[in-house]
Design a protein that fits this description.
With 334 residues, the protein is mainly α. Helix content is 73%, strand content 4%. A hairpin with a 2-residue loop joins strand 1 and strand 2.
Amino acid sequence: YILIISITFFINVFIAVDTNLIFSNWIFCLASYIFVFMMVYLLEFRLRNINRVGDFLWYFYCSWFAIFSILFFVSLGVDSVFGLPLRTYMLFTPLVENLHHTAPLFATLPFIGFYFFRERGRLIQKIIALLSIAMFILMAFESGSFKAVVGMAFGVIAIIFHAIFILTSSLKIRKISFFVSILLFSVVVTVFYFDEIYGFLLNLFNENDLHGGRAYIYMEALDKIYNSPILGYGPGAHIYDSSLDVFRDAHQTVLTVWLQGGLAALLLLLMFMFFLIKRSMINAYLFGAVCSLSIYILGGDILRRAPIWIMIITIVWLADSYRLSLKKVKQYDC
């Protein structure tokens, strides 16, 4: 993706598709992507050189649990620590001012907790997993994020559909029952709750929006994409706000990818999502975690948020570890 948007930028510079490109803007954006890439690469490199990945990720998960729990209980007494916020307007936002930097983690981590509850063998580990699940759910609600609550609900629904898909023996019946269930559920809900769904989608994409500002940004982003749908414009913010004389980001993952990298980057994102969903479907709880996180991919911009990418790497490696354990069980049975 970094290569695609870099090429796109220089093409724009030389053929002047967009005369409003600002060098300081694209340098900061590109540097952010490189930083996130290096962080994810180092974690990936570390995981590739560990024999017992499942144990490492368990302790990694427990570290998240311990750190966030300490910050949460401290936040009950004070609103900041060492000059960094713990609560913003009474909402739990540990060490950040924007609740959407941490809320996706609180929406995703409970499902990883359920995975460890099922997979860890010792009683103390199961107790820790249950406590962590309860704490992360509490933190999600305390964050005040509508997307976090919707994400958890979507993850639970995904687990239910996964159970229907897996427990049915016939592959043909599984596929038919899965898609028919989704279709019937969608039709019934749409017919009886159209107004509520409309309001839900409006809240999802305009959460904490001020006087329709987010909707305005989305419309401007689509207009910008219409002018260069195949090529894109390269890294940086490309939506001009005339009222403040600044350029703004699209604040939505799909729109940002399409704006910056054009059709090639959009296809790359779709391939990545297909890979992530396919890889996680080996386990119901990991699939639920991915579906929960997808709410933030649709309703926000995750490209420069390193913790979310660390979460994605964690889910992928847990899925691979689980797949390997299943193979060992089958070999042992044979």
